[in-house]
Amino acid sequence: MENIKKRHSRFWTLILIILSIFIIIGINNKMNKNFVIKQETLIYEKLPKSLSNYKILQLSDLHSKEFGKDNKDLINSIKEINPDLILVTGDMFTVSDISIDMNEEELVPYQLLSKLAPHYKIIYVSGNHEEGKDITYNGDDYTTRNRSKNNAYNRYRNKLESLGVTFVENSSLQNYDYFINIYGVYFESMEKGEYYKSINLDKNKLNIMLCHDPKYFDTFVNIGFDLVLSGHVHGGIIRLPLIGGLLSPDRTFFPKYDKGIYKISTSYMNVSAGLGDSIVKRIFNPPEINVLLLKDE
C-alpha cells in the first residue's frame, strides 16, 4: 500500500511539473508577441532649457519581427510617443533575411522605417547582422566600401537614405538641434578601436554614441560621451529573477551589461533588450522599445 501511495505521489508531482511547464511556455509566448515601452529620465545640467523634455526613441534588434500586420502596433505606439528623434542601434534584420538580388523593399525593417521616415528624424548604426552582409557584399575594409554596387544591402541603405534616414558608422552628425552630436561605430571596428582615436568631442554639447555592443561602455566614458545607446545582448535572452540576463549572443554567461540604464560618472548608457529573437527564444524577457527623456534638472 505504501508503494502505491508513493507511485501516486510521484505521478501527480510529474503531472504538476508538466502543467507548470506548459503554463510558463504559454505565458512566455504571449509575452513575446507584445512589446513594452521602457521610459527613463536622464538629467544633464548642461542641457539648454529649450531641449528639456527632449524625447529620444531607441529601436534595436528587431530581427525582422512584426507586431501586428506590417508592424501596425509598433508604428501606432511610436506615433503616440511622438519622439523628437529616433535612434536605431542595429540588427534590424537577421543576416539570413537578405540575399544579394532580393527586393530589399520586402525587408521588414525597410517597410517599418520607410513609414516612419516621413514623420521623424531617424539615425541608424549597423549591428553585427547588417555588418555581416556589408562585409560579404562590399568588403572587409569599411573605408573602401562602394555603395554604388548593385546589391540588396546597398539598395536597402541607399533607399533609406533617400527617405532621410542617416547612417552614422565611423562618422558623426554634428549640431543636431544645435546642441547634439551623434556618433556611430561599425560593429567590426569596435574592438580594433581605430575610429576612436580620431574623435575630438566638444564637451559643451551633448555627445551621443550609437554602438551596437554595450561592452565598450568604459571606453566611451573615458572619451567623454554623455550617452551611449546599445543593444545586441537581447536582455540576456533568458532573464533570471534577482540575477538578470543569462546569456549574450557571443555565448558569454551573465553579461556585465545586459539591459537598462547604467551610469559611470556623468555618462549614461541604455542597453535595449530589443524587439526580436535570437536562436534561443526569450524567456521572461519581453520585447521592448525605449524612450529616453532628457531633462536639464
From TrEMBL:
<feature type="domain" description="Calcineurin-like phosphoesterase">
    <location>
        <begin position="55"/>
        <end position="235"/>
    </location>
</feature>
<feature type="transmembrane region" description="Helical">
    <location>
        <begin position="12"/>
        <end position="29"/>
    </location>
</feature>
<dbReference type="Pfam" id="PF00149">
    <property type="entry name" value="Metallophos"/>
</dbReference>
<keyword id="KW-0472">Membrane</keyword>
<dbReference type="InterPro" id="IPR051158">
    <property type="entry name" value="Metallophosphoesterase_sf"/>
</dbReference>
<dbReference type="InterPro" id="IPR004843">
    <property type="entry name" value="Calcineurin-like_PHP"/>
</dbReference>
<keyword id="KW-1133">Transmembrane helix</keyword>
<keyword id="KW-0378">Hydrolase</keyword>
<protein>
    <recommendedName>
        <fullName>Calcineurin-like phosphoesterase domain-containing protein</fullName>
    </recommendedName>
</protein>
<keyword id="KW-0812">Transmembrane</keyword>
<dbReference type="InterPro" id="IPR029052">
    <property type="entry name" value="Metallo-depent_PP-like"/>
</dbReference>
<keyword id="KW-0479">Metal-binding</keyword>
